[in-house]
Specification:
Low-confidence stretches: 1-25
CATH topology of the largest domain: Nucleotidyltransferase, domain 5
Radius of gyration: 21 Å
Mean pLDDT: 89
Structural class: alpha/beta
Strand order of the largest sheet: 5-4-3-6-9
Distance between the termini: 28 Å
Number of domains: 2
Number of strands: 14
Strand content: 15-25%
Largest sheet: 5 strands, mixed
C-alpha cells in the first residue's frame, strides 16, 4: 500500500514527471501539506523555501464524515504515488475548530467532521509525525515563517473570506489559547445591536457580520436594487455575478459606489482592529483571504481608524499589511505548520 511505501522510501535520484511539471528530487526536507476546506481539498509536497513540488486539488466531499475522510486519504495516496518522494512530516490546515493538543477536528460549519482524531489517523496510516490546526492559524504561521512577517515576534493575522479567521504569534511562537480555539477575531462584537452573525455563531453584531465576503456581496446587491443607474445594477442586468471580484474590479476602476463599499468595510475593519491593537500591542497585523485582494482599498480606511482611535504607543507601532500568500496560501500554511511544529531542527 502507498502509506507503507511512504514510511520506507528513500529519495531517488533524477526527477519524476507529472503532466508538464517535473518534480526534482532534492536532499531538502519535504512535507506533505493538506488544505481541507469546506469546498476545496488540496494536498501538496512542499519544501522549506517554500516551493510547491506537486499538488492535487479536488472538490471536498461533504456528504458524510466517512466519505470525506476516505476521499482525503485517497487524495494523499494519489499524490504520494505520483510524486514518488519521501516526506518527513504532515501538516494539515482545516476550516474547523481544532483541539491542537489532541489533534482533533472538534467541529466545522462546512465539513461533516466532528470529534475526529485526524492527527492520530494520519500518523497511523502513513507512519509520519502529523500536526493539524485551524486554517487561519496556519496562514498566520506561514506569514511569520515565510512571508511578510518574517522576523516579527508579535503579530496578528486576519483572514477575510466568507467569514473572518485569525491567528496569533506571541514572542515568536504561535499562541492558541487553552484548548487551541484562540483568535476567533471575526466574532468580536463591534455593534451590540448589529445583525445576527452568520453560520453557527450564536451572537449578533460580530465583526464578520460587517466585514466579510458575504457582507461585500450583500452591499453590492443592496446598491444594485437601490440605484438602478449604478454599475452594480448594470452588471446584474447583464447577468454578471455580483461577487467580490466584481466589486474589486469596479473599485480599482474608480467606481464611486464600489469605492464606498470598500471604505465602509475598511472603516469597520479598523474598528475591530483598534480593539486588537489595544489588547495585543502587535508589531504587525497581516490581512489575507479573498477580500484582502482589494489591498489598500480595504486596508487604508482601517489604518485611518486605528490612527484615530487606538491608544498610544500601540497605534504608532503597529503596521497593517497585506499577506504575501494568496494562491496556495492554505498549502503553504499547512507546510509551515509541519516545519515549525514537527521539524524545527531541520
Amino acid at each position: 500500500m502507498v502509506h507503507a511505501v511512504v514510511r520506507l522510501r528513500a529519495v531517488l535520484a533524477g526527477s519524476v514527471h507529472h503532466g508538464s511539471l517535473a518534480f526534482a528530487m532534492s536532499s531538502q526536507p519535504l512535507v506533505l501539506a493538506v488544505d481541507l476546506g469546506g469546498t476545496k481539498l488540496a494536498a501538496g509536497i512542499v519544501d522549506d523555501a517554500p516551493t510547491l513540488r506537486g499538488k492535487a486539488v479536488r472538490p471536498t466531499v461533504t456528504s458524510d464524515a466517512a466519505a470525506c475522510l476516505a476521499d482525503l486519504f485517497a487524495c494523499i495516496d494519489g499524490l504520494l504515488a505520483e510524486t514518488q518522494v519521501a516526506v518527513q512530516a504532515i501538516g494539515v490546515g482545516t476550516a474547523s475548530m481544532v483541539d491542537y493538543a489532541r489533534g482533533y477536528i472538534v467541529e466545522s460549519t462546512n465539513l461533516p467532521l466532528r470529534d475526529i482524531p485526524l492527527r492520530d489517523q494520519l500518523q497511523d496510516r502513513y507512519g509520519l509525525p502529523a500536526a493539524i490546526d485551524n486554517d487561519a492559524t496556519v496562514a498566520c504561521i506561514a506569514e511569520h515563517r515565510f512571508g511578510v512577517a518574517r522576523g516579527v515576534n508579535d503579530m496578528l493575522m486576519l483572514t477575510i473570506g466568507t467569514g473572518i479567521g485569525g491567528g496569533i504569534i506571541a514572542r515568536g511562537v504561535p499562541y492558541r489559547g487553552y484548548s487551541g480555539a484562540a483568535a476567533e477575531f471575526g466574532h468580536m462584537v463591534i455593534d451590540v445591536h448589529g445583525p445576527r452573525c452568520q453560520g453557527s455563531c450564536p451572537n449578533s453584531g460580530c465583526l464578520e457580520a460587517f466585514v466579510s465576503g458575504r457582507a461585500l456581496v450583500a452591499a453590492a446587491r443592496r446598491l444594485a436594487a437601490e440605484r438602478p443607474d449604478s454599475a452594480f445594477a448594470a452588471a446584474a442586468a447583464s447577468g454578471e455575478s455580483l461577487d467580490g471580484p466584481l466589486v474589486t474590479r469596479l473599485a480599482q476602476a474608480g467606481d464611486g459606489d464600489a469605492l464606498a463599499v470598500y471604505d465602509e468595510l475598511g472603516t469597520l475593519l479598523g474598528v475591530g482592529m483598534t480593539g486588537l491593537v489595544n489588547a495585543f500591542n502587535p508589531e504587525m497585523i497581516v490581512v489575507g483571504g479573498a477580500v484582502a485582494a482589494a489591498g489598500d482599498l480595504l486596508l487604508e480606511p482601517a489604518r485611518r481608524v486605528i490612527a484615530a482611535r487606538a491608544l498610544r504607543p500601540q497605534r504608532d507601532q503597529v503596521r497593517v499589511v497585506r499577506a504575501a500568500f494568496a494562491e496556495d496560501a492554505g498549502l503553504i500554511g499547512a507546510a509551515a505548520l509541519a516545519f515549525t511544529e514537527l521539524l524545527t531542527s531541520l
